[in-house]
Amino acid sequence: MRVLITGAGGQVGHELVSVFGAGGHEVAGFDHASLDITSRDAVHAAIVEFHPDAIVHSAAWTAVDACEADPDRAYAVNAMGTRFIAESARLVDAAVHYISTDYVFDGTKESAYVEWDQTNPQSVYGASKLAGEHELGENSSIIRTSWVCGFHGPNMVKTILRIAAEHETLSFVDDQRGCPTFADDLAAMIAQLVVERRTGIFHVTNAGPVSWYEFAREVLLASGQDPDRVLPVATADLQPPRPAPRPANSVLDHAALRLSGIDTMADFRDPLRRLVAALGEVTN
Questions:
Q1: Could you give the number of structural domains in the chain?
Q2: 75 catalytic, yes or no?
């Protein structure tokens, strides 16, 4: 297949370029510097010139608190950028596979969210990503994921390890629950969905719901450190408070994968150990 990837400079985009390349597909990866997705003309030119069979649209503005302060930019990137991708894809009859987020939900459900649950974003970021979902047509898939960590780019695993190196104790909220997702596992699943020409909404995360407090403990365990250095804190007690609200429950059920007969991804602790080891090799 000919596969065009937006956001190729990000932690998921890096892995997508690698996995499709390793699969023998012809790949065109565009990062922000090489493709401004807020420019309709630039998006049109890139897609028409490469003429892909599939587009994996991972480019997004994911700075949740910054989105809250600049809604126009959030919608320009996450909603209008997706509209331009979808418009141009129709010209070349390419399928669009859009990476979305757990933030499309309000977090009030007591159990895990399935693909058909009612969306109700509480932040500008979540609302702008949901707006992007609404720009897609029938020949597309939506891959909602959460708590993404990987070797490339900033993420919570790197943050936890950095704080642990600088401070004796670490505080993380224990009243926000979700599923950590590792970029290489996510990219492999996306590639499978693309190659199999799947359409519709899929929730794709690693298994194992945890709070951020529990996740920080697992990171320290994976790096051979004492997990009791991590202390729990309530979201309401964070100082300073975060500008954008976070869903208290953003655990995603993988119902669409399961009902499609597709094997779901491994428990997050497996790729966490793999990532911590890889990061350790870089720093040593």
A1: 1
A2: no
